[in-house]
Amino acid sequence: xxxxxxxxxxxxxxxxxxxxxxxxxxxxxxxxxxxxxxxxxxxxxxxxxxxxxxxxxxxxxxxxxxxxxxxxxxxxxxxxxxxxxxxxxxxxxxxxxxxxxxxxxxxxxxxxxxxxxxxxxxxxxxxxxxxxxxxxxxxxxxxxxxxxxxxxxxxxxxxxxxxxxxxxxxxxxxxxxxxxxxxxxxxxxx
Length: 190
What we know:
The protein is mainly α. 62% of the residues lie in helices and 6% in strands. The chain contains six helices and three strands; from the N terminus they run ββααααααβ. It has helices at 22-41, 47-69, 83-94, 107-129, 139-170, 174-180, and strands at 4-5, 14-18, 182-186. It is elongated, with a radius of gyration of 19 Å. Residues 1-9 have low confidence and may be disordered.
C-alpha cells in the first residue's frame, strides 16, 4: 500500500489510507438514496418510479465505466470476482482467522459488489422491458422484476450485516470510510 500515510493525531498504531475517491462515495450514497426512495416510498405504478429507475441505470453505467478508468481502488481489478478467494476468506473468518484489512473490498465484499451491480442492472433492464410494446403486460417479465427487487433487498440486508460484522471484527469503520474516503487501518508489525 504505497499510498498509505500516517495522519496527525492517529497515533503510532493507526495509519490512514485513501480508500474511496469522491466518485465512488457519491455513487454509493446516491444509489442508497435512490434505491430506498424507489423501494420504500414511490408507487411502482407511477412515473416517478420509472424516472428513479432510469437514474439508477445511469449510475450503474457510470460505475461500470469508472470500474475500468477510475482511481486504483475503484477499479474492478482492485477487487476481482474470485469465488475461490471468497470461499477461502469465509473459511478463515469462520475459523477466527485474522486477515489483514483490505484497501479495497475483501473477497466476500467484492462478491457482494458484483451481485448488487448485476441485480440492479437486471432490475432496470426488466423495468425498461415492461415499458415496451413487446413486454407490456407480460407476466414473467413483471414477475422476474419483482423477484429481483426482493433479491436486492435481501442482498442489501446481507451487505449491511457484512459491513457491521467486518467493522467490529477488523476495527476498521467501513461506514466512515465510505463517507470520508479514508480507512483507518491498524499498523501490523512486519
